[in-house]
Amino acid sequence: MNPLLGKHILLGVSGGIAAYKAAELVRRLRDAGADVRVVMTRGAQAFVTPLTFQALSTHPVHTDLLDPAAEAGMGHIELARWADLVLIAPASANLIARLAQGRGDDLLSTLCLATEAPIALAPAMNRVMWADAATRHNISTVRERGIRLFGPAEGEQACGETGAGRMLEVPELVERAAGVFAHQALAGRRVLVTAGPTREAIDPVRYLSNRSSGRMGFAVAEAAREAGAAVTLIAGPVHLHTPPGVKRVDVISAADMFAAVSNAVANTDIFIASAAVADYRPAAIASDKIKKTARTLSLELERTEDILAHVAARDPKPFCVGFAAETRDVAGYARDKLARKGLDMIAANDVSQPGIGFDSEENALQVLWADGEAALPRARKSVLARQLVALIAERLT
User: Fold this and answer.
1) Do 129 and 148 fall into the same domain?
2) What residues are labeled active site?
3) Which one, 187, 194, 229, 323, has least CB within 10 Å?
């Protein structure tokens, strides 16, 4: 069943160049079966005309709080009650600030105060604005009030810079909107996720590590939370914001991660090991910085703890999902790992392929279990995470 079928989506459009994408968003939401009404701020009208949204939504566009014709029937209250979801895309830094302050000085902000429907923001702004302390504070405030955040993504921005702050693409926004109404497939479940790399010290200033960004694991944690689970995320050293509603534990080394998992795994229903844990570490850590003297340097390495195998060997054990990043024979190595470690499911990806996996917002997964498999084609990691969580929920039942 399409979760958006028959749903009332109130689309708020605030000022920013990403406003042009909102026109396509109206069309895609209607294609998914939703009834869409549009509210525009004054800033948004500088980028796209109301007539565009009226033609696409087939409804008059609302722009003014003090519209005598609309207010004769308390129009802003009626719109607030009509909505099943208030989705603001793009949500500018100014709009987010006004919501954080609880202001109602235009139609869109007033609707957000008057509605009992879920509110979701799709932020769109320059990367420096997104990272600014005031914006971070405002984001934290609106999250605490239960407002959802859809994004932002990282990538090239209209200003010519590259970084976080880009509005999510329309297909993902539609999927996120559908997710608001989707069945809570993991409601009541406790999920433990590992993400990111580990760092294994060589001396006080050097370490062994890998290229994992942690994005896939963080996306999985967010998807599990959206599906209704209570989620604990154990993260290696990464520069990512904690998904809303997720409990985060930060670690550095494989030994740290092993200890954190051992401490948190009791009563866990699902363990998803997406972290790229180091297989080896230096057998001895130099107490001082190693100086460049000899022409060669040898390091003696020892095996680290196998966290996934340790959890899979528990009795009773949680539903265990592993990850396998391979450069060849992806399915073969993944099948071997699935059987050898006694896993319930494994998600494998080919990191030799350009543009996916490490250092990328996108990936492609081959998901395997004892008597089946599913191919998840190339997509944003957040999209793949939701697809993977849906597979896990399906296998659990």
Assistant:
1) yes
2) 159
3) 187
